[in-house]
Design brief:
Layout: E1 6-11, H1 21-36, H2 41-55, E2 74-80, E3 85-91, H3 97-104, E4 111-113, H4 114-123, E5 146-151, E6 156-162, E7 183-186, E8 189-195, H5 197-202, H6 205-214, H7 219-228, E9 236-241, E10 246-250, E11 256-261
Parallel strand pairs: 3-4
Antiparallel strand pairs: 1-5, 1-11, 2-3, 2-6, 5-6, 7-8, 8-9, 9-10
Helix pairs in contact: 1-2, 2-3, 6-7
The structure holds aspartic acid.
């Protein structure tokens, strides 16, 4: 009999206001609806992130904060447990970067940056967006990237999207589009990280967390270990799942949510 256990987790980023949990819950519900319709984990994770990109309260999609020079540059990526990966970096002028990353999965060149990413998006008729140009919010120091991990009973998937850390220079790229840093999905689980991208990348965070799941460690144990890799001034948050369990935690406030249906 096919496994009908479905599970989805979403986060609104390390540093996001925990009072915005309703946004993470709505995104979980949208992803869970997709799982119920049989779309598979990848589509569910993408839909979860689209909901968060459209929310406006998180630093991704229409909520993306301006860079130090006033530009809005976004990174996004998706991965599934078949090893497929797609990513965009420093893309400008589009509403839902995660959809462009998803489209790139099927392309020969699965990661595009800057002008090339925008050209690819225009060629594929993605919705442009010019909403939040302007000056950087100097009072904003958080990150509030968004992410989602999903399991459809067979496959795992993970997706991330961000406007980058607050006030960062134009052209800066964090962990999000780097495979195994901000996210990883494999046959034993899925991991999505958030926080200071430079530290997340230096620790190869998502892949090393995944390896612990593969070795049979539980999600709660893995999170405690991972949080220890970071200094106090480095914000870090994680959502992750194995075939049997899931967990989420951050060393800052973090709006996040999880839903499961059926028996693992
Ligand atoms: N990790 C993201 C970055 O460094 C930001 C975040 O997750 O909050 O771009």
């Amino acid at each position: 009999m096919p496994n009908t256990y479905h599970c989805i987790l979403t986060h609104g980023g390390a540093g996001s206001d925990a009072a915005f949990r309703d946004g993470a819950e709505t995104a979980c519900r949208m992803g869970m609806d997709a799982l119920g319709q049989g779309t598979g984990a990848l589509e569910a994770a993408v839909r979860g992130v689209v909901a968060l990109e459209n929310d406006g309260r998180f630093n991704a999609g229409v909520g993306s904060r301006a860079r130090a020079d006033g530009s809005v540059q976004m990174d996004a990526c998706v991965m599934d447990s078949d090893g497929r990966f797609g990513a965009v970096a420093v893309i400008e002028g589009f509403r839902n970067p995660v959809l462009i990353a998803h489209k790139l999965m099927a392309s020969e060149h699965c990661m595009r940056a800057g002008r090339g990413a925008a050209e690819f998006a225009l060629e594929h008729d993605f919705e442009t967006w010019t909403g939040r140009k302007g000056t950087a919010d100097a009072s904003y120091e958080g990150s509030d990237t968004v992410g989602c991990v999903a399991f459809d009973g067979t496959r795992f998937a993970a997706a991330l999207s961000t406007g980058g850390t607050g006030g960062s220079p134009a052209g800066r790229v964090g962990d999000v589009p780097l495979l195994g840093c901000g996210l990883y999905a494999g046959p034993y689980g899925a991991v999505a990280a958030t926080g200071k991208g430079e530290a997340i990348a230096r620790n190869m965070t998502a892949f090393r967390a995944y390896q612990m799941l593969e070795e049979g460690m539980g999600p709660n144990f893995v999170i405690e270990e991972v949080l220890d890799w970071f200094e106090e001034d480095e914000d870090i948050g994680l959502i992750l799942m194995s075939r049997k369990a899931w967990a989420g935690q951050s060393n800052r406030s973090m709006a996040w949510s999880g839903l499961s249906e059926g028996e693992p």
